Amino acid sequence: MLEFTLRRKIARVIKQLAETLNISFPRAVALFYSTDTCRKMHDPKYQIHYMSDTYLVNDIIQELQKKQG
Questions:
Q1: Which SS3 state, helix, strand or coil, does residue 37 take?
Q2: What pTM, to 2 d.p., does this model score?
Q3: How far apart are CA 42 and CA 69, in angstroms?
Q4: Which among 68, 40, 34, 67 is positioned nearest to 56, based on CA atoms?
């Protein structure tokens, strides 16, 4: 995936994450970059960047819920 395309997708995912969780955009950025989902999006072998934005947001939320216990 081209770098600018990935960056646009990440921006959309972060925006949707902020809206879904009703948090600020900077807080959503921090949460996103702390997740394994983020790491996988940057690693082409996982190819999860092809998933829908909503799928990725739900995956991030599930990951955050697991971290909370």
A1: helix
A2: 0.91
A3: 26
A4: 40
Could you give the CA distance from residue 25 to residue 3 in angstroms, rounded to a whole number?
Answer: 21
CA 32 to chain centre: 5
DSSP 8-state secondary structure symbol assigned to residue 69: -
Whose CA is closest to 53, among 21, 9, 22, 5? 9
Contact 51, 7 (CB under 8 A): no
- Give the CA angle between residues 26, 35, 39 to the nearest 5°: 110
Within 1-69, strands assigned E span: none
Rg of the chain in Å (alpha carbons): 11
pLDDT in tens, 3-55: 888 999 999 999 999 999 999 999 999 999 999 999 999 998 999 989 999 99
